[in-house]
């Protein structure tokens, strides 16, 4: 077999008229550019022999050096992904963030923190803020932000390989270990989740446990941040992963890591996280236990101040503060501790379809909760586009559809 592979480049040259060695001269030993080999009279044979050459490079020259190519991580799933991200506004969520930070630094017996809450309660912003704090303090090992409908961010296929790739960056001592795993098991990303996690995470972590602890201040563990378990469409596999995590920390108390993840309280998730086997490992936090009204008031003040500055010519004759303290308090009460209400309201007032002080009066006239706000928002959009007479009202199915659309994505 070795002889056949070694002779392959000469045979390839004779059959296609191209020099394989020259073709591969400008790429590293685990990266092969086949674009110049798949065209011509003998393209199928050329591709087959090209893959034979890849096999030779992988198995007889050395382990793969480019983990990004081998693991194929989901690069837009990490905390430092490109584009706009939601994070906690400064001076908000102080009690909650302080509680999580104490857990990260406490080194207690509960190595998994589960933050749960309903849709629109601000879990994503909290996860982003926690991940950024951990990264700034050299405590972040890996992160993954699930997002329904966003390609590989909504399934579990590349989840563990992505965690492993980020681990190789945050703890470089694990990189050669991961390279050897990929050399011996090139198809590991398509194997059982438990096997993937053991080979790509647990074993490399345990093998370099002392170097990890040596680089950490006060010998504190690093954190793995996973946001929105419920956004993963592979529900059965997510349940399996939850059990893998629980078993890992229950069976390996030497792991120098903690896991922080968030989700809605959906049945397939809470059944596992609230089951007796999980009690010793899980530190549960419910967003409902933290009063969000003070934070929403701060959020409103900050954004209304920006709106006023951007529209000062048309708002300069209004009495300050704008909105008045009573109007601001009324909006806080209508939000019912829901950040999605607060964000939607600000977007509604500042969408440019009317003057902000007029829009805010309309918002003050709706009842508390999301449904009345969505009713007014959608009604205004339809009237603006001439699709409905102002005297008409939205039917309940419209609200149901809009709710599904809003809750299927994150702010």
Note down, in words, how this protein is organized.
- With 411 residues, the protein is α/β, with parallel strands linked by helices.
- It has helices at 2-16, 20-23, 43-61, 67-71, 94-106, 123-136, 159-170, 175-184, 193-207, 209-215, 235-251, 267-273, 293-310, 312-315, 325-335, 339-349, 356-364, 370-384, 396-407; strands spanning 112-116, 140-145, 222-227, 257-263, 282-286.
- The chain contains 19 helices and five strands.
- Strands 2-3-4-1-5 form a five-stranded parallel β-sheet, with helices on both faces.
- Helix 11 packs parallel to helix 12 and helix 15 packs across helix 16 (339-349).
- The longest helix is centred in the first third of the chain and has 19 residues, at 43-61.
- Mean pLDDT is 77; it is low at 1-58 and 387-411.
Keywords for this structure?
disordered N terminus; Rossmann fold; 3 domains; 7% strand; 411 residues; alpha/beta; 5 strands
Write the layout of secondary structure elements.
Blueprint: H1 2-16, H2 20-23, H3 43-61, H4 67-71, H5 94-106, E1 112-116, H6 123-136, E2 140-145, H7 159-170, H8 175-184, H9 193-207, H10 209-215, E3 222-227, H11 235-251, E4 257-263, H12 267-273, E5 282-286, H13 293-310, H14 312-315, H15 325-335, H16 339-349, H17 356-364, H18 370-384, H19 396-407
Parallel strand pairs: 1-4, 1-5, 2-3, 3-4
